[in-house]
Amino acid sequence: MSLPHQVWSMDGYYKGRRVLEYRTMGDFTKGQNFVQHLLPHPWAGTGHVVYNGSLYYNKHQSNILVQYHFRSRSVLLQRSLSGAGYNNTFPYSWGGSSDIDLMADETGLWAVYTTIPNAGNIMVSRLDPRSLDVLHSWDTGFPKRSAGESFMICGTLYVTNSHLAGAKVHFAYHTNSSTYEYTDIPFHNLYSHISMMDYNPRERALYTWNNGHQVLYNVTLFHVIRSDG
44 CB contacts (<8 Å, ≥6 apart)? Predict the structure, then answer.
C-alpha cells in the first residue's frame, strides 16, 4: 500500500519484469498516465503485493522473496523463504508457478506456500516487512493443490476450492486462534478462470485477475464471509 489511489499492474506469471504504476484506478482502466518500473530480477507466479511503498514478489525459479522499493527504484532486500516449494512444485490448482503467494491485510504482511515436510498442505507465515524474517507460521492442513486461490482478511485465510466456474470459498483458517472451519459460500467467478486474488485492506475490496479481465469485488462479500464463517 502506498498512496490511496495508485494501482500497479504486472502482466503474466512467467519471467515478467515490467511493472506499470498508475496514479488512479481511472488511469488504469484507460491505460494512461503510468510510470514503468523494470525489475532487476524476473518474477514467478501472480502472488505479488505492494506494501508500504515496496513491491514484494517471488523471484523466478527460486523461493527467494524480493523487496523492490518504488521511489528509489532499487532492490532493498532478497531472502529465501526456507523450504518453500517453487517452480510449480506446490502451486494452486491452476498452476502458473503460483507456489508462493504474498499478501497483506489489516494486520501485516503474509506468505502462503507449502513445503515437502508439510506434505503439500498450505502454510501461512507472518513476515517482518523490513527483514522478511518469518515471525510465526501455521500449518492449515489444507492441500494447496486443491485450492483455487486464497486471500487474507484480518488474520484469517480464506481459500476457494477451484479457480474455475462454480468456485466457492470452501475453507477458512484463523491465525488468531489457530483454528479452521469448512465453509460453503458461493463465489461469483464471472469469467471462469481466476489466476490472482488479493484483498486490499485500504479499499476493503477483493481484486482478481480473471481470464484476462480485472475484476473488483466490493466489501459486501466480506461481510457475508465473516458472518457465515
Answer: 13, 14, 15, 58, 59, 60, 61, 62, 86, 87, 97, 99, 100
72-104 pLDDT, tens per residue?
999 999 999 999 999 999 999 887 899 999 999
Task: State pLDDT tens for residues 32-53.
Answer: 889 999 999 999 999 999 999 9
Q: Report d(CA 169, CA 186) in Å as an integer.
A: 6
Give the CATH number of domain 7-228; options: 2.60.120, 2.120.10, 3.40.30, 2.60.40. 2.120.10
Contact by Cβ (8 Å): 57, 12: no
List the chain domain ranges.
7-228
pLDDT of 144 over the 90 cut: yes
Q: Where are the beta strands (DSSP E) in 131-204?
A: 134-143, 150-153, 156-160, 168-174, 179-186, 194-200
Distance of alpha carbon 156 from alpha carbon 175, whole angstroms: 6
